[in-house]
Amino acid sequence: MRKYWMTFRLGVTGALHYRGNLVAGFATYAMFILVFFCLWRNMYAQSDMPEMTLTQMIWYLCITEIIAFGANPRATGGVVQDVKNGNIAYQLLRPYNYVGYKYAESMGPVAVNTLLFAAAGSILGFCIVGPITGFRPWTLLPGVLSMILGTSLLFFIQMAIGLTAFFIEDPSGIGLVVGKAISMLGTFLPIEFLPAGIRQVVQNLPFSYVTWAPARLMVGFEGGLFFRCLCLQAGYLAAFIGLCALLMRRGRRAIQANGG
Amino acid sequence: MYSVTAKNLTKTYRTRVKQPGLRAAFRALVRPEYREVQAVRGIDLQVEQGQRLAFIGPNGAGKSTTIKMMTGILSPTSGALSVLGLSPMENRRELSRHIGTVFGQKSQLWFHLPAADSFKLLGAIYDIDSPTLEKRTARLRDQFGLGDFFNTPVRRLSLGQRIRCEVAASLIHEPELLFLDEPTIGLDVVVKRELRERILEMNREKGVTVFLTSHDAGDIENICQRAVVIDGGGIVLDESVEGLRTKHMTVKKLTVRYAGEYCAATPAWARRFSCAPGCVVCEIDTRRIGAEEALGHLLSLGSVTDISVEDPTMEQIIASIFEKERA
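Structure tokens for the assembled complex are given below, as produced in the milestone run.
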């Protein structure tokens, strides 16, 4: 495990060196939250929504966007590049698990960015709507656990898409569709706001367990919901890890790195 | 004891043929065309432990494909392959602990990190404990002269500095077998010489087997004991480097300078003959005429002030082997 821990630590160091990139990210994040705040304030002014209070809704958005901006490992592009330019072949010359190594490498910057966006998001949330009424700080713990699982699930979904580059010319189209599914099914809008029939389906798909589950648990913790989310996140995580292992095994045999 | 044993090793690629034009592109959607490329055809090779072998050939000969099979990157289409007693495809991870690789055209270091951090990370990847890693890092840093730029991010290093770091990094886990694929490409003569000396030192001190591919005849001449020439995916020559020199050095260049402005017509025994006022340059094939006899003819032409006899360079020898095979 030392190799993966070391990789993670160097990922953290690298992210701290390139912190200038974050400034633009913070500005976009703040703009995003402010636009949605104006939108939801008008909607709440017109009719009451029993699913969430306005304060919960804004905090929900702050948290899902922390994941979207800060905790997004963006693993697909790197893997597709590695497969296309043949670098993956050279990386396989080391005694480690390629997927595990990429996970450790991605999680370094993810940890730094998430902490920084969480700090920015908390300040923004307090400035706009203040604290959630009746919020119990200990519920942050299960929320953070769910966030770690959600981010890991997102990494392995992106990794599996990237590894399909072994077999198809360009998997970026699949990545785009999955990215939109994650955005639409739980990032911009809590799934409680979807029509009942669609909600039933969406509740069982992996996409909502990337952003919706952690944000929903943090703004309104429920024991039963936490247990259900945890089981589904762990189950989907195991499924995507298995899929990555399978794609990697098949892909290794498909490597064609001819030429000097 | 052999480090590498290959028996009837072959590798065939299946590549998609893309015809030019819009019509062909639509046709390929329905009926794609494929072409089989046989990159390696039945290679038989044994490399003894501690040997320094040059695996040479023209572009597209199958050198890199063979190395990639030996390191476990590519799976052979058929044949048997054993590297350090392991099957590269089946035991890739185990094998990677015992082999070192340097691909001159691909960096294996982390570009945004200083070389020192790359060494630490490689130490962790190869499960080397901290005291051993520190000792090895210090030794390699001194041997390869990395001290001045060891803490500079790799992306800021010159090519020569980077390649020195690459080779040193490939030795951090003390491999038994070192694959070097064009390690001196793009380097200046001084750095090349230093690098060759370091490789020889590692071979002498640790008994590391060296498997080298290079287009640089100097690498072959200065590092290797044995040369295997590959062309069209098959071995065409397997010879000691000394043997290459003696058996294939049948051409000699004789230069004779005369006191007067003497010039002669091309003699029948010369391969090439050029005549400038006071100087004759002539190439002979020693299988047709001995150097002594040819010199005798040239000396009899006039009063001689200077004579030189030159052997062909390793580059010329290799080029002539490739030309013969192609012919």
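Residues 189-206 of chain B form the longest helix (18 residues). Residues 100 and 171 of chain B are 6 Å apart (CA to CA). Further analysis is deferred to the final report.
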